[in-house]
Design goal:
By secondary structure, the chain is mainly beta. Helices cover 13% and strands 44% of the residues.
């Protein structure tokens, strides 16, 4: 006789029990040749088999659990394992993950080439709208139709987490290859530079990280390494504390590295900047399923002194204040199509004496005049953009950026006053670890004398993540 399963036994026992319980008439039982006692015996037999089956299943489950426990205990405590996310788990509980990507860029400038620090081809690997030539009478202004290939944005990062009785201790260190050195004439051996290096514990972050005045979650997805005009794109050493208010709300405060950025071109003596106090930044952020919104404030000190031995003594300081608001929203978050991933992003920031906290405001926090006085400058900027998903792995971003500084009358005619930018791209990920894209970038620069310069750039990129 074939052995019955647990479910079959349960059904059979129930049917027989029901038959017995109905109390069939005696003459019907006798006519069928089946006695009440026989039915009762079958019910008892089925119940006995059911009990035996349950006991066998419990025994099997205990054996499986015991086997798993034995296998876990058999793993030596000094062996490194790998979890399902690809992180290495070290003896003692620390997990370490290595990540990053290789990114290759092909850049073609149709018109005036913006540079970073000099006049070589490597200086144009990223956009810098401040350096767009505003005159065609110089070498840079005549550099049209210039092509450049590079892989300097390639990046390596290491993250770790160590459990403690008071919560995990996290560590992040990240580098790329935009350091100094190298030459396109031979090996393109550019130096490795430090991007981020910090630790986290119990709400504190200490080390070098993106400034707390910025909002990386708002930043648009662009192929251009520097991004739009008017953004905050700065990493520096800091001490930050973040407190979770629950319901998606967090507040934070930070003391960050001070670096006075002053325009001293109008001075008759060499004025050297000096840093008296750390920059103070505080803010609030709300995170929800539709996106996020945040507000931040900044207080900083800018100071200047003359170099030793100068006949004219410059010794002045001024305070700077700034505010920023930013966010990223999903307008179709409840939809099921690919465009449910679409997002609208914005950033607006400004203040007096904030200088370098707006990308194009570097060295424009304040300016010295010939009377030994230091004057704070007002700078504001931001960007607005939209990202659309044509399909799950195919998306486009369009972003407009702007920055502007109110200059003083004593400043030179060539001082940078305004920047504008537009980025538009198409990025395709045939698999999650590969991005292939094409982007157009337009830029405009204007100086104090109202002279203008324009740039037009095409860029194609391929990124392979690990």
């Amino acid at each position: 006789m074939r052995k019955m399963s647990k479910s079959q036994l349960c059904v059979a026992a129930s049917v027989l029990a029901l038959s017995v319980g109905m109390g069939a008439p005696a003459h019907a039982q006798e006519s069928s040749g089946v006695s009440l006692q026989a039915l009762q015996d079958q019910v008892n037999s089925l119940q006995k088999q059911l009990v035996q089956l349950q006991a066998a299943q419990e025994k099997s489950a205990k054996a499986v659990a015991t086997g798993r426990r034995a296998a876990k205990e058999a793993t030596p405590s000094n062996v490194v394992t790998v979890d399902e996310k690809g992180a290495f788990k070290l003896p003692g509980g620390t997990t370490i993950k290595i990540g990053g990507y290789v990114k290759a860029d092909a850049i073609h400038d149709l018109s005036n080439r913006p540079t970073v620090t000099g006049t070589t081809s490597a200086d144009s690997d990223v956009t810098n709208f401040v350096t767009i030539p505003t005159s065609n009478d110089n070498v840079l202004g005549r550099r049209h139709n210039a092509t450049r290939f590079d892989a300097r944005q390639s990046r390596i990062n290491i993250t770790s987490s160590t459990p403690t009785a008071y919560g995990p201790v996290g560590v992040v260190i990240e580098t790329d290859f935009f350091g100094t050195g190298g030459t396109a004439l031979t090996t393109n051996s550019y130096g490795v530079r430090l991007r981020r290096a910090f630790g986290t514990f119990y709400g504190f972050l200490i080390g070098q990280e993106w400034t707390s005045f910025g909002d990386n979650a708002q930043s648009p997805e662009l192929l251009d390494f520097n991004g739009p005009a008017g953004q905050t794109a700065m990493r520096q050493a800091q001490i930050r504390y973040t407190y979770d208010l629950k319901d998606g709300n967090t507040v934070f405060a930070a003391l960050e590295n001070p670096e006075s950025d002053v325009d001293t071109t109008s001075t008759s003596a060499t004025a050297t900047t000096i840093n008296h106090y750390p920059d103070l930044i505080a803010g609030w952020k709300h995170q929800a399923g539709w996106g996020h919104f945040g507000l931040r404030g900044l207080v900083r000190n800018n100071a200047v002194k003359s170099s030793p031995g100068d006949a004219s003594v410059y010794d002045d300081e001024t305070w700077g204040y700034g505010l920023a608001a930013s966010g990223r929203f999903k307008p179709f978050v409840d939809e099921k199509a690919a465009y449910a991933k679409d997002s609208f992003m914005f950033l607006i920031q400004g203040g007096t004496g904030i200088g370098r906290y707006v990308a194009e405001g570097v060295s424009l926090a304040a300016a010295t005049d010939s009377s030994k006085n230091l004057h704070a400058l007002t700078t504001w900027g931001g960007n607005v953009g939209y990202q659309h998903f044509w399909a799950d792995g195919l998306r486009s971003s369009v972003v407009y950026g702007h920055s502007q500084t109110t200059l003083k009358s004593f400043m030179p005619a060539g001082a940078h006053k305004r920047s504008d930018s537009v980025h538009a791209n198409l990025i395709w990920s045939p698999v999650p670890s590969v991005d292939l894209g094409f982007e157009y970038c337009w830029g405009r620069a204007e100086d104090k004398n109202n002279a203008e310069g324009f740039m037009n750039r095409l860029q194609a990129s391929a990124a392979y993540r690990f």
